[in-house]
């Protein structure tokens, strides 16, 4: 039996439509896409592994490590398929998750419907006991009442429990004691807010611990099943999960805190794009990840994706901020819309083409898959427009039915708008691209950036089909489609560091700053973060310290990066200087002229990561050697407004420095890159495709 080696690594990404597998064998990449199996998600991983190890000529026992990301937790929250969950909370706070913050995310909608809370009111239990904002006990915990609540939960067929007490981030004693009492009579998992999300703002914190408890039984069962079946296959290597913040954690940690997996797949994509940016020395990048169900945009500066401490999942109202479930955990910040290859096209009451958020997924899939789907998806529109080869989709594994696509498009959209199939398909793709362009502009403006200043990195099975058109709409002159773009997130998993971010909210005004107390708090956070990292890393670990600060009275705070060193006597002056510098960078100027205006620290963050090896640098090349396509295909051209002959080029036939003049389609196993009339494509030294706008100075 061949023993495993650590230089053979495998990434597995379960998406809403496809499961992507990437196998790195000592620097050589093997990859495949397999339709996601909803009934048994682990089966698609096993099927994909069988394909790539066959191509690589190795056995499962030789795999050294498996890194996994999944949308299963996200889908369980969106589709409300989690466990029946009980919430135990402080008396008087039973309705926090239903009242929300009372913010109207659509101010002028008189019929505004707030999202339904994850846990219904009858499943929320309250108990006396109160911790103050400073962490002091104001009222003892009613332990007798907790005994009664445990009996009611035991009799109620619940599958999980969430505990969220007011101000538990400052003092977790009541939550821990409540868990101890409940666990005597319950054999189901119990999640407490002080461990899941030890941050201020009770709505976000309560909702996060509820979400964690809601998906915990399902995810724990899935992860246990996956490990068992991998061992049965012969792959007895360690399995790690990528979390929403972009680092790796153990399966055991993921089973206990599955809410940290909610954005794991997109996080892998952002890491993939950041690695490309670092490789080419690109300081301003926007990543564009379009898969089968969603499309994601992420800003990457100085080779690192932007991060946040909270995000929303399952937005219900035109993707408006505030209309979803807030999840208060560290996350790579991005904007996500329901516009993937499987997103359904439809006509609204005003006669406008709309797409998503509903997706055909892998079952039944778009109409062209021939798996029972009857409604038109974006993939159907791409096929009708000629962007896809019906006989060479997914390396020929799936034969596409063009007539089925045309029939679905006409039945649901074209006939209602009195358009032919080609015009309807173009309208569908234009709506998708315009929605994505608008989302990208908003995301950039919210972060004080100009989207056109960036180079776009496009990946995911569908993004290269739409990237050039999206660049035309956004005024972006350069776009890169990396090698392996079709399975970019899975490759990104292989680039991710072992990392964990520990957080703690401690509201502290600079006038009352105590260096000794803060040093002790940061020491505890560092020990916690490093202990998670040590489960998979044995080398050097570095820590990033961040204080989230604001002027007293403000509603939100800004991140202030700090040196990894203890605070001394000059701490207050140094913190004030750093805060004002970062405040000015965020908002243009610091607030001046108000005597006595306090500055306060709301939350501390310690992010521990293992040190990754340096990447090999590459220089962008414009290419001088023109490659002439040997075959052509009729593809709808947005500039001329009708079909046009596009050159068809196999990506594997191109070498570094080769230049392909648009219009053309560069095809490969997992995706195709559409080079519109406005762009030329040049193959880079690492095999990436660089699209450059004709006549630009880029």
TrEMBL record:
<dbReference type="InterPro" id="IPR002821">
    <property type="entry name" value="Hydantoinase_A"/>
</dbReference>
<feature type="domain" description="Acetophenone carboxylase-like C-terminal">
    <location>
        <begin position="530"/>
        <end position="683"/>
    </location>
</feature>
<dbReference type="Pfam" id="PF05378">
    <property type="entry name" value="Hydant_A_N"/>
</dbReference>
<dbReference type="GO" id="GO:0005829">
    <property type="term" value="C:cytosol"/>
</dbReference>
<feature type="domain" description="Hydantoinase/oxoprolinase N-terminal">
    <location>
        <begin position="9"/>
        <end position="184"/>
    </location>
</feature>
<dbReference type="InterPro" id="IPR045079">
    <property type="entry name" value="Oxoprolinase-like"/>
</dbReference>
<dbReference type="InterPro" id="IPR008040">
    <property type="entry name" value="Hydant_A_N"/>
</dbReference>
<dbReference type="InterPro" id="IPR049517">
    <property type="entry name" value="ACX-like_C"/>
</dbReference>
<protein>
    <submittedName>
        <fullName>Hydantoinase/oxoprolinase family protein</fullName>
    </submittedName>
</protein>
<dbReference type="Pfam" id="PF19278">
    <property type="entry name" value="Hydant_A_C"/>
</dbReference>
<dbReference type="GO" id="GO:0006749">
    <property type="term" value="P:glutathione metabolic process"/>
</dbReference>
<feature type="domain" description="Hydantoinase A/oxoprolinase">
    <location>
        <begin position="205"/>
        <end position="497"/>
    </location>
</feature>
<dbReference type="Pfam" id="PF01968">
    <property type="entry name" value="Hydantoinase_A"/>
</dbReference>
<dbReference type="GO" id="GO:0017168">
    <property type="term" value="F:5-oxoprolinase (ATP-hydrolyzing) activity"/>
</dbReference>
């Amino acid at each position: 039996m061949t023993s495993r080696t650590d230089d053979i690594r495998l990434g597995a990404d379960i998406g809403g439509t496809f499961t992507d597998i990437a196998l790195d064998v000592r620097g050589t990449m093997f990859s495949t896409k397999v339709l996601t199996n909803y009934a048994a998600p682990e089966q698609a991983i096993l099927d994909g592994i069988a394909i790539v190890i066959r191509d690589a000529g190795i056995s499962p026992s030789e795999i050294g490590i498996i890194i996994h990301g999944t949308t299963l937790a996200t889908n369980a929250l969106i589709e409300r398929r989690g466990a029946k969950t009980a919430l135990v909370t402080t008396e008087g706070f039973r309705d926090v998750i239903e009242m929300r913050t009372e913010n109207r995310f659509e101010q002028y909608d008189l019929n505004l419907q707030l999202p339904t809370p994850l846990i219904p009111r009858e499943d929320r239990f309250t108990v006396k006991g109160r911790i103050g904002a400073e962490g002091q006990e104001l009222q003892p915990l009613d332990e007798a009442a907790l005994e009664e609540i445990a009996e009611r939960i035991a009799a109620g067929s619940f599958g999980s429990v969430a505990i969220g007490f007011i101000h538990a981030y400052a003092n977790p004693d009541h939550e821990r004691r409540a868990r101890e009492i409940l666990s005597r009579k319950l054999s189901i998992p119990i999640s407490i807010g002080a461990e899941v999300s030890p941050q201020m703002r009770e709505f976000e914190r309560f909702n996060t611990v509820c979400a964690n408890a809601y998906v915990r039984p399902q995810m724990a069962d899935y992860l246990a099943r996956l490990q068992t079946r991998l061992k049965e296959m012969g792959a007895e290597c360690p399995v790690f999960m990528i979390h929403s913040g972009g680092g790796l954690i153990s399966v055991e940690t993921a089973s206990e805190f599955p809410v940290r997996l909610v954005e794991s797949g997109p996080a892998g994509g952002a890491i993939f794009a950041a690695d490309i940016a670092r490789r080419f020395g690109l300081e301003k990048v926007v990543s564009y990840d379009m898969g089968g169900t969603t499309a994601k945009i992420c800003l990457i500066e100085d080779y690192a994706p932007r991060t946040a401490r909270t995000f929303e999942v399952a937005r219900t109202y035109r993707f408006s901020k505030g209309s979803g479930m807030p999840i208060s955990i560290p996350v790579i910040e991005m904007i996500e819309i329901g516009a993937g290859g499987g997103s359904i096209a439809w006509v609204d009451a005003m006669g406008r083409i709309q797409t998503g958020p509903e997706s055909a997924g892998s079952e039944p899939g778009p109409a062209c898959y021939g798996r029972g789907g009857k409604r038109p998806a974006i993939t159907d529109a791409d096929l009708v427009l000629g962007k896809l080869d019906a006989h060479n989709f997914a390396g020929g594994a799936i034969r596409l039915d063009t007539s089925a696509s045309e029939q679905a498009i006409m039945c649901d959209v074209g006939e209602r708008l009195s358009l032919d199939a080609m015009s309807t398909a173009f309208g569908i793709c234009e709506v998708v691209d315009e929605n994505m362009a608008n989302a990208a502009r908003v995301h950039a403006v919210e972060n004080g950036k100009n989207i056109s200043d960036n180079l776009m990195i496009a990946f995911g099975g569908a993004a290269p089909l739409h990237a050039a058109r999206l660049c035309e709409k956004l005024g972006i002159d350069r776009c890169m489609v990396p090698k392996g773009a079709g399975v970019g997130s899975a490759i990104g998993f292989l680039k991710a560091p072992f990392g964990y971010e520990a957080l703690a909210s401690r509201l502290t005004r600079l006038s009352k700053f105590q260096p000794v107390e803060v040093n002790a708090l940061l020491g505890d956070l560092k020990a916690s973060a490093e202990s998670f990292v040590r489960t998979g890393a044995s080398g050097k670990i570095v820590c990033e310290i961040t204080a989230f600060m604001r002027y007293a009275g403000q509603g939100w705070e800004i991140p202030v990066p700090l040196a990894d060193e203890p605070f001394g006597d000059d701490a207050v002056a140094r913190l004030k200087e750093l805060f004002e510098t970062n405040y000015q960078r965020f908002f243009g100027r610091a607030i001046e002229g108000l005597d006595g205006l306090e500055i306060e620290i709301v939350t501390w963050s310690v992010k521990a990561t293992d040190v990754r090896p340096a990447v090999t640098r590459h220089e962008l090349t414009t290419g001088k050697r023109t490659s002439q396509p040997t075959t052509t295909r009729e593809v709808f051209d947005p500039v001329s407004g009708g079909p046009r002959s596009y050159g068809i080029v196999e990506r594997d036939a191109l070498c570094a420095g080769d230049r392909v003049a648009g219009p053309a389609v560069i095809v490969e196993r997992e995706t195709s890159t559409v080079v519109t009339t406005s762009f030329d494509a040049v193959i880079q030294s690492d095999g990436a495709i660089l699209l450059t706008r004709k006549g630009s100075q880029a």
